Amino acid sequence: MSRHSQATGFDIRRSAAQRLQTVLTGAPFVPFSVREIADPRDRALANKLVTVSLRRHGQLSQILNSVLEKGMPKRAGLFEAALRIGIAQLLFLPDMGEHSAIHLAVEVIKKDRRAGRFAKLANAALRNVQRGFAVEDLNPKDLVPAWVFARWEKHFGEEAALGMIEALLAPVPLDLTGKPTEDQTVLFEKMGAVKNLGQSHRLEDRDVSVEDLPGYAEGRWWVQDLAATLPVHLAKPKSGQKVLDICAAPGGKTAQLAVTGAEVTAVDLDGKRLERVKENLDRLGLKAKLIEADATNLSTEQLYDLVVLDAPCSATGTYRRHPEVLWHRREKDIKQRAQLQHEMLKNAAKLVGVGGQLVFCTCSLEPEEGEGQIKAFLHKHGDFEVVPVLKEELENWAEPILEGGFLRTLPSMATPQKGSGMDGFFAARLQRTK
């Protein structure tokens, strides 16, 4: 191995360890951008090292408990992150080489001011993993927190719960929502994307960044998971309708609404996230009125034909793309978020005109943030009723439709075209009757 390749390998792993360290301390994982790592192969490798470490977080924790007799050292800088990445490469990325996994992890630790004194400990731990662990001996249930699996099993059954664990390790495809133009089919076929449902298309594999895909610069599509498209798909916005999009960022649903010709007002509490909505709409050539406001006390001069509330939630349904959410959340967090959703939903109802519709959705797998939320709302709001979701509206895809007419997708579900998985989402469509 040349000095250049050694240095490159070191720099990639140090960057990956630094990024993983921020996630271990509670931050969400943000993939490396072209501005951070210019070379696409290096960038892909750094992102892969962090992603595999996060997906395998639970199993890695069990391994670390076995090989570190005295536990994880305190105030040890990049020690834990570099060690996790080294073990992840050893066990789950064997084609990259066992020697480089150990050598580069130890080098990253040696050259870190706080971690350096634990280099020998890291080397011994990695050697023990190399000699004593095999992937087939690891327990799949360790991939998620015990309380998470127990909830999945209780609410969805053991088969679905095990399927959701498998979904954690499966490659995550790229879903694109296109503008409804006549030539979009040709564009997506050129990319190798397959139709999901409605205007959603799926790209299972890609060799270039999103920005380099055909049609991006021209604003012909945007990135949006299939499950996230369904609430607006069910809302059926029409040209000229007055539509309110609450908790709009990053703007996928705003774009879905605006492309129909509806008069869209997009609301979000975070001004910086609203700037991202504007950037996305500008690229797409779409328009919406943007308002920075708190959804729990938002008031407007008019009532709306359609209100879409994509409420803040535990986001447990997004774990395929953000595995860290399962480890950052606690069961008590669900109750706190459910209370916030209750306040938002109650206020959103005031903004719906008679005969208008309210679509509530969350990217959560927790019934308290879905079915339970709507049932509690309907108990106190006799002027609203459920408009049941019908399989014909989903191109005869019946699997996500719950008893009571609600919609729930699971990461273990196949898409209508038998594609691989999607985010976990809940949606309910309500109509104001008086």
List key phrases describing it.
four-stranded antiparallel β-sheet, 15 helices, Rossmann fold, 2 domains, N-utilizing Substance Protein B Homolog, Chain A, alpha/beta, eight-stranded mixed β-sheet, disordered N terminus, 15% strand, 434 residues, globular
Structure explained in plain terms:
By secondary structure, the protein is of the alpha/beta class. 43% of the residues lie in helices and 15% in strands. The protein is built from 15 helices and twelve strands. The strands form two sheets. Strands 5, 6, 7, 8, 9, 10, 11 and 12 form an eight-stranded mixed β-sheet that branches. The termini are far apart. Mean pLDDT is 95; it is low at 1-6.
Helix and strand arrangement:
Layout: H1 3-24, H2 40-55, H3 57-67, H4 79-92, H5 98-110, H6 119-132, H7 146-156, H8 158-169, E1 174-178, H9 184-191, E2 194-197, E3 200-203, E4 221-223, H10 226-235, E5 242-246, H11 252-258, E6 263-268, H12 271-284, E7 289-292, E8 304-310, H13 325-328, H14 331-349, E9 352-362, H15 371-380, E10 384-386, E11 407-409, E12 425-432
- Beta-strand segment tally: 12
What gyration radius follows from the Cα positions, in whole Å?
Answer: 23 Å
Shape: globular
Instruction: Provide the CATH top-level class of the largest domain.
Output: Alpha Beta
The CATH topology label of the largest domain is Rossmann fold
Which regions have little confidence, pLDDT < 50, spanning 5+ residues?
1-6
β-strand percent reads 5-15%
| Helical content (DSSP H or I, runs of 4+) | 40-55%
What is the tally of helical segments?
Answer: 15
The largest pleated sheet is described as:
8 strands, mixed
C-alpha end-to-end distance: 74 Å
What is the domain tally? 2
Average predicted confidence as pLDDT: 95
Which structural class is indicated by helix and strand composition?
alpha/beta
CATH architecture of the largest domain: 3-Layer(aba) Sandwich
Order of helices and strands: HHHHHHHHEHEEEHEHEHEEHHEHEEE
